[in-house]
Amino acid sequence: MPKKKFKVMVKYEWCKACGICYHICPTKTIVRGELNRPDIPDHSTCIGCLMCENLCPDFAIDVVEEKSEEVGVENA
């Protein structure tokens, strides 16, 4: 079974740059970027724990699972 992949989506127009997301991220997928705003240089390190999404006071973060691109594999 392949490892699940996740993508961290930030709605920057909602973000107030509080820093909770990059302080709480266990894998440091989210890091402090320009003007203290969250930056995600490498989505592949995200484990999908949802801590950033659940603790964001502005509801500015969504963690979405990337769909597998395996061909010919169907769930029965």
TrEMBL record:
Coiled coil: none
Gene3D superfamilies in UniProt: 3.30.70.20
SUPFAM superfamilies reported in the protein's UniProt record: 4Fe-4S ferredoxins
Listed name of the protein: Ferredoxin
Lineage: Bacteria, Thermotogati, Thermotogota, Thermotogae, Thermotogales
Pfam families listed in its UniProt record: Fer4_9 (PF13187)
Annotated 4Fe-4S ferredoxin-type domain residues: 6-35, 36-66
Organism: Fervidobacterium thailandense
A GO molecular function held by the record: metal ion binding
Keywords for the protein's UniProt record, in alphabetical order: Iron, Iron-sulfur, Metal-binding
Entry annotated with the keyword Iron: yes
InterPro entries in alphabetical order: 4Fe4S_Fe-S-bd, 4Fe4S_Fe_S_CS
